[in-house]
Amino acid sequence: MLSGSNRNDILSVEVPLGDRSYQIEIGPDQIDTFSQTVLSTMSDLTHVLVIADAAIQEPWANRLIHSLSTSLRDDATPLRVSSISVPSGETSKSISQLSELWQWMLDSSTDRRSVVIAVGGGVVGDLAGFAAASFTRGIRFVQVPTTLLAMVDSSVGGKTGINLPTSKNMIGAFWQPSLVVIDTDVLSTLPERAYLSGLAEVIKYGVIDDAEFFAWLEANASGLVARDDGTVRAAIAESCQSKARVVGEDERETSGRRAILNYGHTFAHAIEATVGYGQLLHGEAVSIGMQMAANMAVDLGICEPTLLPRQTELIQACGLPTTFPEANAEAMLPVMQRDKKVSHGKLRFILPERIGSVRLVGDIDPSSVVKAIESCR
Ligand SMILES: NC(=O)c1ccc[n+]([C@@H]2O[C@H](COP(=O)([O-])OP(=O)(O)OC[C@H]3O[C@@H](n4cnc5c(N)ncnc54)[C@H](O)[C@@H]3O)[C@@H](O)[C@H]2O)c1
Ligand SMILES: O=C(O)C(=O)C[C@@H](O)[C@H](O)[C@H](O)COP(=O)(O)O
Ligand SMILES: [Zn+2]
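Above are the sequence and the LNCXM5UN SMILES. Below is the predicted complex in structure-token form.
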């Protein structure tokens, strides 16, 4: 773990994807020197398109834009910088918002050498990433995540996209960023609820992939909730390492390995869609979804008995929900039928066997699904 490192250290994690490999730079004080980092990765850069969450335009996006517009390239010419802000919240992952971005990109004379810079949480990262993936069939993009959730999960791995009214992330593309810059200082303005939401995906890595990390989280939950600097950076680095490893093994979720990152998500996405996007934050829905999945695994007799109480205790210690009284199995089931893991019309779930190990389980009777949902009401 990284807990002993100096505050000013920048830690680099590589996402290993052959000639599309990229770095994740993790550490403080990176916004004001952002242009140097980008130009050292993309020396041919002439035009950047900054797409930012409206809530963080001031101060973070404006500081990053200042860094870009005041720097010169090797040949002493300035970068051309265009910028736009996107309304905060899940409802911006929509076709109408995407369409606005496409028009703006066209009006800004975007060409194949332009680069999109996504500055925000998972909403802006997914939306701007898909705008980059689709405009002129794909231009480069850089992720600058500003929520904990985006730092530990959504900015890494290249899943980009938007929602349909009843289906999360149903339209999108695998489109890898060229670089991910995680400036941990930006977390200082993140509201409590959004911060805690990110801890759900951190806990997920412990359950799916790393029992030692899970035990570390149990021992450090209070430091994480209190945003202790070293503890937070260690959790981000460990999470990025887990995600980079899994994505490197199965970039497009074809072998089944990457599907483990979907632990709790079949339930979570159905909750988000049925209660209305934005009512619950993604991480809150994932916490409840992981509880439903663990209950299902216990019910099917495939799960070691201490997992559920340990997972419950850690989720609660991180200030996240473990129950959801409004969960409506009747409404959720048809939405779950459109989950991307459905195969031959059958639902498949990532279920835990023990802390640090999960597997993809198919052919589950709908009555077990209903029981799992009701176990968390
Ligand atoms: N692509 C992937 O692999 C992947 C992985 C996980 C989640 N996701 C997606 O990510 C989305 C959730 O992301 P999120 O939790 O970051 O939500 P979000 O992007 O909606 O951000 C949460 C809130 O924090 C605000 N905010 C962002 N940064 C801030 C800062 N530094 N200071 C103050 N306020 C700030 C935003 O305005 C918003 O209100 C969901 O759509 C989910 O489906 C995608
Ligand atoms: O990167 C992945 O793979 C994930 O599944 C990460 C999830 O945390 C994330 O919420 C993702 O957007 C879900 O993707 P989907 O394919 O189930 O829509
Ligand atoms: Zn998720």
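The pocket of nicotinamide-adenine-dinucleotide (ligand 1) is lined by residues 53, 55-56, 88-90, 93, 120-124, 126, 146-147, 149-150, 153-154, 157, 159, 168-169, 186, 189-191, 194, 197, 281-283 (CB under 6 Å).
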